[in-house]
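hey so i finally got around to running the thing on that chain from the lab meeting. sorry it took forever, my laptop kept dying and i had to restart like 3 times. anyway pasting the input first so we r on the same page abt which one it is
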Amino acid sequence: MIQLYHNDMSSCAQKVRIVLAEKGLEWKGHHLSLRDGESRTSEYKKLNPNGVVPTLITDSNETIIESTVIMEYLDEKYPTPPLKSVAPYSRALTRLWMKQLDEGIHLSLASISNALAFRYQHMEGKSEEELQKYFEGIPDPSRRERIWDLTKNGVESKHFLPAIQRFEKLFLDMEASLQDNKWIAGNVYSLADIAYMPYLTRFDHLNLLGMLEKLPHLMNWYQRVTQLESYKEGIGKWLNDKYLKLMSEKGTEAWPRVKRLLQSL
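ok and heres what got predicted. didnt touch it at all, straight out
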């Protein structure tokens, strides 16, 4: 049976769970607490040297990491129902939309989430010395520095403004595509739609959907995808009330400041 190392609220794990649901595949889950450092143990790093989730173990006992790669693998290995158009151009568009995620969008989401909400989890009950030791467990030095700065400085972090600007551009691009198409990469529901569901969901949980106020096609898309059964299976049933409360409270507090930042650009 397929095995998945994942986390309930991880946006990358959410994408993979949605694909598994779309394909109707059974899988065995291994839930890791990211706050407790369970993805950074030496044992887990034998599977995923990056110390992140998700990690997929195939039914042939092969290990695959990186959510975008896992999604592509599942669609190729289990082609029914297909999650790409048969038209080469639409397939290319799907890949282009997904490619963006690994070229800065996911990093921007992590920056926004940490600056607004997760910084409080990082700091909770820890002295500065304990906090530094906690961050030393992050293998990638650039990621370690970024999360440290976001935790210490929040919205004032040098990483926050570029991150929110990147999403403003992304949302405008999605709106433009959806003006002419039913789905993000054309008129066929695809991996591109699945890939972006968790990102809009995170903005929803952070009460930042005010950014979509003048983007009716994107808001309509988001409302449609949240009604899909696979969305409910991959995201809805895994929602963590503790995280939701934190994100809602801190995001609501920060929204007026974020709105002013966006208006000043």
